[in-house]
Every structure is written in structure tokens, then in C-alpha cells.
Amino acid sequence: MSQKLIYEGKAKKIFETEHANELMMEFKDSLTAFNAQKKGQFQGKGKLNCLISTHIFKVLSANGISHHWIKTENDNQMIVQKTQIIPLEVVVRNVLAGSLAKKVGREEGQRLSCPLVEFYYKDDALNDPFVSEPQIIEFKWATETQLEKMKKMALEINQILVPHFIKAGLDIIDFKVEFGINSSREIILADEISPDCMRLWDVKTKEKFDKDRFRRDLGNVEEAYQSVYERLEGIL
Ligand code: ADP
Ligand code: UDP
Question: Average pLDDT of each block of 10 consecutive residues along the chain (236 residues)?
Fold first, then answer.
């Protein structure tokens, strides 16, 4: 199979495949935080994120969400539909944490009265700034219709995943998703959903099982990612 590397990011490598409408996404063992100012890695991290993402794409498929995942190979490689990525990080929050807790000067942990959807402009050089919906339309990062579609899909994804993760004893505090436009001009969920881009707290103990263990030097990063995988596979 001819595979040409077309992009290497912080967490994944993207290869062309012999099919013009498909890409191969290889998950790396590296971990980065604070826009790659902090770097780390552990062996098997790429595989865990790929398998956790695979599990989530399957759950979303069963619930009618359109996404880019086609199949997973060699545990750390996915074949996905090629898309034109909409340059926005779409964040859904159920519980106050991270940058929003900092912004409003409150402790993490307060449950929000309803899930919030926020948009950040995907640009490492600008540190992925928070952007308003009028700004998104003004700068043509997405149209109003696309914005509405992404909000609806992000909330549906949340509604599907929250009860699923509860079965695994994990509370979804917040997560980030990306959307792309495929060859049929349809907006579909792209990229990955893994502990790198979600906050997951144990339902009972509130212990963290996500990238905050790395960001905040809490230790046992590998064990946490492994546990997320085992808990999810345990409920199928
Ligand atoms: P980053 O670019 O932030 O360092 P990654 O290392 O995860 O992040 O790189 C993966 C890149 O692939 C991201 O830029 C993401 O937007 C892009 N991507 C994810 N899914 C698709 C897809 N289906 N089609 C095209 N690009 C994609
Ligand atoms: N997130 C992400 N990539 C980013 C920024 C945020 O995956 O570039 C995820 C993050 O892991 C968390 C959620 O989006 O689950 C909300 O992140 P927040 O805005 O609180 O920023 P943080 O404090 O994590 O940088």
C-alpha cells in the first residue's frame, strides 16, 4: 500500500492512501500540553487513544452520528474519510473546569445548568483563541448553517456519550471535537475522541482519568488511559 506522509501533528501522523477520499491516521505515543510547551510520552499511548477513539466512533455510529472513521488497523492506525477540516475546536462542557473555571475565577467541579458549546479558532500560532459566533461568520471559518449543525451534533454526541461513560464509572466533564466536510459536502465528526481531548472524572471518587494527569503532573498517566480503555471495553 502506498502511503505518503502528508502531515505530522502533535499527536498523530496523517498519510495519503491509494484511495483519494481516504486517509490513514496514525496515533503517536507523544503527549503534549499547553500548545506543545510541555512534552512527554509513554509507550502504547497511541494505541490506547486509537482504540478508545475506535470504541467511541462505534458507539456514535450505533446512534446515528456521521463520522470519518472507516476501520482501525494495527491498533494505532485508522482509515478515515478525507475531509476539509473546519478550523474550529468545538468544546462541550457539562461541569466547570479548565480554561472556563480560570476565566470566571471559580473552583472546578460546579455542574453547569445545561451543557455549553464553545468555539475556539484552530491556530497554534494564536494559541487557539475563544471566538464568538459572529466572529466565525465574519472571518468565514464556517457559515451560520454549518455552525448550527456543529452545535447540534456536538450536543447529540454529548447526550450519547455521557450515559455511556457513566456505565464505565466515568463522568464526562468536558471534551473537544473537530468537524470536517467530506467529498459528499456533508459535515461529519473528524479527528479523535480520547482522554487527550476530554476530561473524565471517576463518578464516585472524582479522580481524574485524562490528560490533566499529565498537564498537572498528577502521575499514573499511562494507568489512567489504560483504565479508560478497559472500563469502556468492559461495558460492551
Ligand atoms: P495537531 O494538528 O493539533 O497537532 P494532531 O497531531 O492530532 O493535531 O493532527 C491531526 C490533524 O489531522 C489535525 O490537524 C486534524 O484537524 C486533522 N484531521 C483529523 N481528521 C481528519 C480528516 N478526516 N480529514 C482531514 N484532516 C483530519
Ligand atoms: N481541549 C483539546 N484541545 C485543545 C484545547 C482543549 O482537546 O487544544 C479539550 C480539553 O482536553 C478539555 C476541553 O477541550 O477536555 C476543554 O478545554 P479547556 O478550554 O478547559 O482548556 P484547557 O484548560 O484544557 O487548556
Answer: 87 97 98 95 97 98 98 98 98 98 98 98 97 98 98 98 98 99 98 98 98 98 98 90
**How many angstroms is it from 111 CA to the middle of ligand 1?**
30
Instruction: Say what the pTM is.
Output: 0.98
- Distance from Cα 133 to the centre of ligand 1, integer Å: 22
| Ligand showing the shortest atom-to-Cα distance for residue 69 | 1
What's the 3-state SS for the chain? CCCCEEEECCCEEEEECCCCCEEEEEECCEEEECCCCEEEECCCHHHHHHHHHHHHHHHHHHCCCCECEEEEECCCEEEEECCEECCEEEEEEEECCHHHHHHHCCCCCCEEEEEEEEEEECCHHHCCCEECHHHHHHCCCCCHHHHHHHHHHHHHHHHHHHHHHHHCCEEEEEEEEEEEECCCCCEEEECCCCCCCEEEEECCCCCECCCHHHHCCCCCHHHHHHHHHHHHHHCC
Spacing, Cα 128 to ligand 2 middle (Å): 10
